[in-house]
Design brief:
By secondary structure, the protein is an alpha/beta fold. The protein has 7 helices and 17 strands.
Length: about 375
């Protein structure tokens, strides 16, 4: 990496990626300070409302804090755990619950990156004398002289691409962020860690959202509201066809997501899927698979990265979920002066889901992104 020696804060999650970043930068002669964010008490809802007693395989766990501290000690660098549980609950957990109850499907990892991790860690990095923050994300951050802007680019390892979750970063945040793994493949990262004796070289990647064990959103929402002493809102209603015919009842709109097939409780001769959630009316619209496809979406709260603003229609590729293959589309400003963006796909896309993010690309460059309305 081309940089002069300087104090760098490293966001250490307790995994092999961020641990390798810390070790690499230390080996290059930089002064390193390790920071781990305590975001959620993993034992907080254990056993409540059917939640598991033990939690494994999730990011930001107590074991991860222990592992990060162990790496920091081995590297001989200062290490701090910073508690942001209150901020995380306010800006990530509660919006997550609120969105689900309204019939939308949020992305907590993007909310966390946008509102907690980069925002708070960059502030704390500066407070302890580090102007820059290094993370283990698979992405690339570069300054583009032609654009006179910092740009976010896809990494060398397309299978580990995390740019979809980073669309909300500002120019100031990008200017102070280092992502040393952007040019490496995951097997190369593990090989480097192994060769340099890192204890976490073989540690599996975390697979679950830190506060939702097993991906069971309904169970988490039930347990969280019970803990808060808040009754579960009456989100019951009806299942309807696109023609408005009532074909069944449901006990809560938060039990469904767009594209869902199982658990509808409606027996027909052909498979049915959730097409739309009308939270204001408590309606779950169902129909055949071919009705899941749409060629347009509206995006709100768009953050532009490689351009200062959208001043004319732009041909891009749009990604509507993390594992979605970016599809050719045209984006333009909504005609109502709201600042929203209309994205029109060249080919209809399956299960466009309100609450999820849509991220716009041109080749390897992230143009920007927003939330599907």
């Amino acid at each position: 990496m081309n940089m002069t020696s300087a104090t760098i804060a490293v966001a250490m999650s307790g995994g092999v990626d961020s641990s390798t970043v810390a070790a690499m930068l230390r080996a290059e002669g930089h002064e390193i300070i390790g920071l781990t964010m305590q975001l959620w008490n993993q034992r907080r809802l254990a056993g409540r409302e059917g939640m598991p007693e033990k939690t494994t395989g999730r990011c930001c766990s107590i074991d991860d804090v222990y592992d990060a501290r162990r790496v920091a000690e081995a590297l001989g660098i200062p290490y701090y755990v910073v508690n942001h549980e209150e901020r995380f609950e306010r800006d990530v957990v509660r919006p997550f619950v609120r969105e689900y109850l309204s019939g939308r499907t949020p992305i907590p990892c993007s909310l966390c990156n946008n509102h907690v991790k980069f925002d708070q860690l960059l502030t704390q990095a500066r407070q302890i004398g580090a102007e820059r923050l290094a993370t283990g994300h698979y992405a690339r951050v570069e300054y583009c002289a032609d654009r006179q802007r910092w740009v976010l680019k896809r990494p060398a390892d397309s299978a580990k691409d995390q740019t979809y979750f980073l669309f909300g970063l500002s120019q100031e945040q990008l200017s102070r962020t280092l992502v040393p793994l952007g040019g490496m493949l995951k097997p190369e990262v593990r090989a480097w860690a192994r060769q340099h004796g890192l204890a976490l070289a073989e540690k599996p990647d975390s697979q679950e959202i830190c506060f939702v064990p097993g991906g069971d959103y309904k169970r988490f929402i039930d347990a969280y509201l019970a803990e808060q002493g808040e009754p579960l809102p009456d989100a019951s209603g009806v299942l309807v066809t696109t023609a408005g015919e009532v074909v069944g009842q449901h006990s809560g709109i938060h039990n469904f997501t767009v594209g869902q097939r199982k658990g509808l409780g409606v027996a027909t001769g052909s498979p049915l899927y959730v097409l739309q959630l009308r939270g204001d009316r408590g309606e779950v619209v169902i129909g055949p698979d071919d009705q899941l496809y749409s060629d347009t979406l509206r995006a709100r709260e768009v953050n532009w990265i490689s351009i200062p603003e959208l001043d004319q229609p732009l041909e891009i590729e749009a990604k509507i979920r993390n594992k979605h293959t970016p599809a050719a589309a045209l984006i333009s400003l909504a005609p109502d002066a709201s600042g929203d963006v209309i994205c029109t796909f060249a080919e209809p896309q399956r299960a466009i889901t309100p609450g999820q993010a849509v991220v716009f690309y041109q080749g390897e460059i992230v143009i920007g992104g927003g939330w599907i309305a």
